[in-house]
Design a protein that fits this description.
By secondary structure, the protein is mostly helical. Helices cover 66% and strands 0% of the residues. This is Helix-turn-helix domain-containing protein.
Length: 90
């Protein structure tokens, strides 16, 4: 499988959520437990690897749940995820 260039919007979203998680004093495991999202998916979001989440619907849903768990308001999560998918098609 070819390595995809990660869209900037995904990298920024992942960094924002990782920083919010750390600021909230939460581990990846605690976010996974709270959201019922697998640890590997949480780590993928933090890396900006949203294409590993199977489909845009899952990426949006998981990223929103992650954001809520770390106390971050939506912050355009859906738009940032979808912008990344749009950038991949270019």
């Amino acid at each position: 499988m070819a390595t995809l260039q990660r869209p900037a919007s995904w990298l920024e979203l992942g960094a924002d959520l990782s920083m919010a998680r750390e600021h909230a004093g939460m581990s990846v495991g605690s976010v996974a437990e709270r959201t019922k999202i697998g640890r590997h998916q949480i780590e993928a979001i933090e890396r900006g690897d949203l294409d590993m989440l199977a489909a845009p619907l899952y990426a949006v849903s998981f990223a929103r749940k992650f954001a809520a768990a770390v106390g971050k308001t939506d912050g355009g999560v859906r738009e940032r995820v979808m912008r990344g998918y749009s950038d991949l098609r270019r």
